[in-house]
Design brief:
By secondary structure, the protein is of the alpha+beta class. It contains nine helices and 19 strands.
């Protein structure tokens, strides 16, 4: 029986010297092969493309053996590539390639321990990271970088590319519109930057610090890796993305088809005024405890409203008083309403509706709760 020749792998240290959109690794990181094992820095996964290439290199008798004697032999290699590419060079057989690298690794390990001691408890309290086990959250925490932003300074400017995901440790920042008006305030425990990273679009608004603020930053490379590793975080993040986009759109005076919301957060009056100002043609559908309501707009003017058995202004004024429930906005109205006249002057109806609600103590008119069709 022929015995299969055992493949031998030599210990070696490589250093990444070039990186082209690699999703995992950065220039300067060391690739270490020791006792049949491969590692690339602490807390980072091993790429199978890289492992395959390194295994080929350290198993070859010709690739880099005797470097000092035969400088013409190959010492620079690449990973083979996936969505990105790295180049790495052989440095030495064992331990760290330089004393400097060893000191840097020791300093990095010390930094990681300090991060865990100081910030793990804070991160544990954030809703975003509730699905993570303690070990996974510890791995994430040590990837964070930290930055202090003085009062009144721009954190990110509109149009700048997304390079980091930000978590506010303490302090407060403001999301500003183009005219400098405030769209939203964000405080300790809240986060931003996910919209740009997830959509690959530049920042759509400028963010300014309202106080001296301390932020934790997760680089785009680590952010994407974390989302890949933990699908539950990805689901949470996309929900946050949609909610944040809608909230800012409402406050900046924009509304788009498909938007939904809670009446406890956006009142019907504010919603109607936004559609009127934007001169939109569309339908607002209300989902309420008592039943369904609908209001139809043509170029910002209300042409029909229905709620249970109520129609026209009576239905409109009743819906204006609703404080609980959900709404959704979709583009377009039924063809039958294309030529329907407005129910009345918009501002006049808003004033009359508010006055009616005040006089009837938040809509005593809601006593009529019989069922009926909503068709015009």
């Amino acid at each position: 029986m022929i015995k299969k020749k055992e493949e031998k792998f030599r210990d070696a240290i490589f250093v990444i010297v070039n990186e082209e959109s690699c999703p995992l690794y950065s220039v300067g990181e060391e690739i270490k092969v020791e006792s049949y094992g491969l590692s690339v820095g602490s807390y980072k996964p091993s790429c199978l493309y890289l492992a395959r290439q390194v295994a080929s290199v350290v198993a070859s008798q010709e690739s880099f053996g005797g470097i000092s004697r035969l400088p013409s032999q190959k010492t620079r290699f690449d990973c083979g590539g996936c969505e990105g590419l790295i180049h790495f060079e052989y440095k030495k057989e064992r331990d760290f390639s330089t004393l400097q690298m060893k000191l840097l690794e020791e300093a990095e390990e010390k930094r990681r321990k300090q991060h865990l001691e100081k910030y793990f408890g804070f991160m544990r309290k954030l809703k975003l990271f509730e699905p993570l086990e303690d070990d996974a959250l510890a791995d994430l925490t040590v990837l964070l970088e930290f930055k202090v932003i003085p009062f009144g300074k721009v954190v990110v400017k509109k149009g700048s590319p997304g390079t980091n995901f930000y978590i506010i440790l303490h302090g407060q920042v403001e999301v500003r519109a183009d005219d400098g008006s405030k769209l939203a305030d964000l405080g300790a425990g809240e986060m931003f930057g996910e919209m740009s990273l997830l959509s690959a679009e530049p920042f759509s608004h400028t963010i300014v610090s309202l106080t001296t603020s301390k932020l934790a930053l997760l680089s785009i490379k680590n952010f994407k890796e974390i989302l890949k590793k933990f699908p539950l975080l990805q689901m949470f993040m996309f929900k946050l993305l949609v909610d944040r986009a809608q909230a800012i759109s409402f406050k900046s005076g924009n509304i788009a088809s498909g938007m939904t919301g809670k009446l406890s957060e956006v009142s019907p009056v504010d919603l109607f005024q936004l559609i009127n100002t934007s001169r939109k043609t569309g339908t607002v559908d209300f989902t309420l405890d008592q039943g369904r309501g609908m209001v139809f707009f043509r170029q910002g003017e209300i042409v029909f409203a229905g709620y249970l058995k109520l129609r026209g202004k009576e239905a409109l004024y009743t819906l204006m008083g609703m404080k609980n429930g959900h709404f959704s906005y979709t583009k377009g109205i039924p063809d039958i309403l294309n030529n329907a006249p407005p129910l009345g002057g918009f501002m006049g109806m808003m004033m009359e509706g508010v006055q009616s609600l005040d006089e009837n103590q938040d809509g005593a008119i809601q006593g009529n709760t019989g069922e009926g069709m909503l068709s015009p």
